[in-house]
Amino acid sequence: MTPLGLDVAVWWWVALLATGVYLCVMVPHMPTPGYRVRTALAPVAMVLFGLASYAAKQMEPATVLAMYTSAVLVFPLGAVGHRRKLAQRLMAAEEAGESEDGTWPMAMVAQTFLACVVMITAYFLVKP
User: Fold this and answer.
1) pTM for this one?
2) If exposure means fewest CB atoms within 10 Å of the residue's CB, which of 4, 50, 57, 79 is most exposed?
């Protein structure tokens, strides 16, 4: 049985749609080309993690795709409403030569955490 009873092919389409949402929400608001490239490559790291989980844990493909979809949607859901402030903070940190570790607004951290909790809860509720 697959999550939500969806076929693996459908999960591929859902994962592609989620990746498109991530790219459309996150990449355009990054302040520099370097940040845009790094942000656009983040789903690649998530794919590699999913492939490693699939190989190491012998997980079902649909389960791995559901996990990927959840992970890739957490960041756009957390960033909505905070993208402009994030871009300003990233630019300020870059101009000052400081680390970008503390650039996320606290409201964005809370919203991302909430999205993560919702996605994890949804994942375990729909997991076969």
Assistant:
1) 0.84
2) 57
